[in-house]
Amino acid sequence: MGDSESEDSDGEGGLGNVSRIIIRPPGVSGKAKRGHLCFDAAFETGNLGKAELIGEFEYDLYLRPDTCNPRFRFWFNFTVDNVKQDQRVIFNVVNMNKARNLFNNNLTPLVKSSSRPKWQRLPKKHVYYYRSPVHQNHYILSFAFSFDKEDDVYQFALAPPYSYSRLQSYLNFIENRHQNDKKFVRTSLAKSLQNRNIDLITIDEISCKSKSLRTERSFIRVIVILSRSYGNASPASYMCQGFVEFLLSTHKIAKILRENFVFKIVPMANPDGVFLGNNRCNLIGQDTNRIWHVANEYLHPEIYAIKNMLKEIDNSDIFQIDFVIDLHAHNSLHGCFIYGNTYEDVYRYERHLVFPRLFAAHVKDFAANNMMFNADDKKVGSARRFCCERLSDTVNAYTLEISLGGHYLKDGKTVALYTEDGYYRCGRNLARTLLHYYRFINILAEPLPADVRSKKRRPRTHQARSRSRQRYEVKPRPKTTRCSAPISYTNLSICYDSGGSSDEAFSPERHYRYAPRSSHLSGYRSYYRNPSSSLLSQAQDQFTLLRIKSGKFDTLHCGYKIGSKIPTRSIPLEQNEPKFEVSINIPPKPYLSIIDLNQLTRGSLNKKSHSFEYS
C-alpha cells in the first residue's frame, strides 16, 4: 500500500471524505511529483472515504457510507489532480453495497475536467463490473482512464450532481426575475437539523384574482410535487427544475395550468443528506422515505413540516389536493416509470390508473414493464403510502422514478443514456400530462388552442399520396428464349406453296389475271382510271407494287419504272378471249424475333442489328 501521508495532505478527516490526500508509491517521500495523484472529496455532495495504491497504475477506492448508517454505499463524487500527461490508471471501487444495479446494463461513470466542464460518460469498453476473488468475492466497479492534460482537475461521479447551493442560487434567480408578479412565491417550511432551509414554491395565478371569483368555485385544486428525498437522486432535481421552468414560461399550456390550479413544490426534502453526499439517509442515518408514519419535529423536521402542510391543505374548505407526486431516481432499472398504490375500492383504483396511462402517452422513454402498484408493509413509511392512507380519498399519490442510466430505444435492446436535457424534458412532459388529465376528466371545459402542440412539426409542402389498402403479390418475370414469330397472312391471293429453293420459300407468289395483249401493268393503269376498280383492294395490300420500297424492286422487267408516268392509253379486252396468269416475285415475308436481352451480349447485339440493316 502506498504512503498517503505528506506535507501537502490534510488527511482523510476521520470517517469523513478524503481531503487533498496525495498517494505516493512505496518508498517515495518528500514533495509530491507529477503523477502522484491527489484525491479530494471534501466538498458539497462529495463522497470518497479512502484511496490506496495497490500497483504501479492501479488504485482501490472505498466509498464513505452514509452518516450514522454504514448500510448504504453507492454514490461517489470525487476529484483527481496533480496528474501527468498521458498517464493511464485503473480505479477499483471496492465496497458498493448494491450487487444488482445498472453497471450490469451499460451504465458508466461520468467525468469532466476544468477545461471541459460538460459531463461525459466513459466508454463502455473501459468499464467492468464483476466479482473479485481478491476482494472477498465482492462486486467491484473497475474503470480505466487516461489523463491527457496536466493542469486540469478531473472529477468523477455516479450521476450529474445537483447540490443544495445550486438550488439556492437557482431559486434566488427565479425570485428576482418574478419579484414584480405574484405567480411565484417562495417560502420556508422549516429548518433542517443543520439549519438549512426547506423551501416551498407556490406557482399559480388564482391568488391574483378577487375573492369573489374564488367563492364561485367549490374548491381550488392543488398539485403537490416533492423532490430529492435521497442524496443520490440528483436526476430528480433536474426533473423538478424542468417542471418549474415550464410552469413559469410563457407557453400557453403553462398559462392554462397556472390560471386553474395551484402548484406546491418542495424542490429538496433532504438538504442535509444532499449536502453531505449521502446515498439515502439524512444527518442521523435514517431513510427519509421510510419514516413518514413516525416522523417528528425533532428528528425529522423536514418530513414533519411537509406532513403538516399536506394536512392543512387537505382539511381546508377552499383547497383540494388532487396529486402528490414524489420524484425519485432509480439505480437498477432503465427508463421512466411510476409506482402507485392499490385500493379495495375498485372505482378509486380505476381512477388511480388514469394518470400513469396518460403519462405513458406523453413520454417516449416510459417503461411500462417497470410500473408497480402495491400495498405491502415494506413501503408503509413512504410518501405515497402515507398520502393514500391519511389524506382524503380524492388524493392520487405516486412515485415518479427516472433512471440514473438511460432508456431503451424502439428496438428494445439499445440503451440511450440520459443527459441533463433528458431529465429537463421529463419534467416538462409531466406538466403536459397534467393538462391532458384534467381535460380527460372534463375539469377544463375550454378546448386546447389549435396552435398549442406538444411537439413542433414541419409544415407540409405537398399533399400526402394515398396508398392502396390492397396488396398485390408481385410475381417474378419468367425467363424468355429466342423464337420466331411469323406473321399469318389472310390474303388468299398469296400462294404459300413455292417449289423453289429454301431461299424462295419466304417469297410467296402473287397471281394476277391479265387479258391477252395487255401488259403486266394494265391493272395498275386501270387503277388510276377507275378508283372504284376491284384492284383497289389489291393496291391496299402491303405486298402491292405501290408498297414496295426496296431498291431491287424499283425497276421491273416491263420497261417502266415504279413511280414514272404511265401511259393512259389502254387496250380493250375482248370478252371471249382466254385469260392467263403471270407470276411476279414479291419481297420476302417479314418475321419477328423475340430476343432475351438478359442472355444477349454486346457483341451479339451489334451483330444482330447489323444483320437487320442488310436483310
Automatic annotation (TrEMBL):
Region Disordered, residue ranges: 1-20, 452-483
Top-level taxon in the UniProt lineage: Eukaryota
Biased composition (Basic residues): 454-469
Alphabetical keyword list: Carboxypeptidase, Hydrolase, Protease
Active site, per annotation: E401 (proton donor/acceptor)
Coiled coil: none
Biological process per Gene Ontology, one example term: proteolysis
Gene name per UniProt: LOC119634455
Domain Peptidase M14: 160-448
Protein's name in the database: Cytosolic carboxypeptidase 6 isoform X1
Bias (Acidic residues): 1-11
GO molecular function: metallocarboxypeptidase activity; zinc ion binding
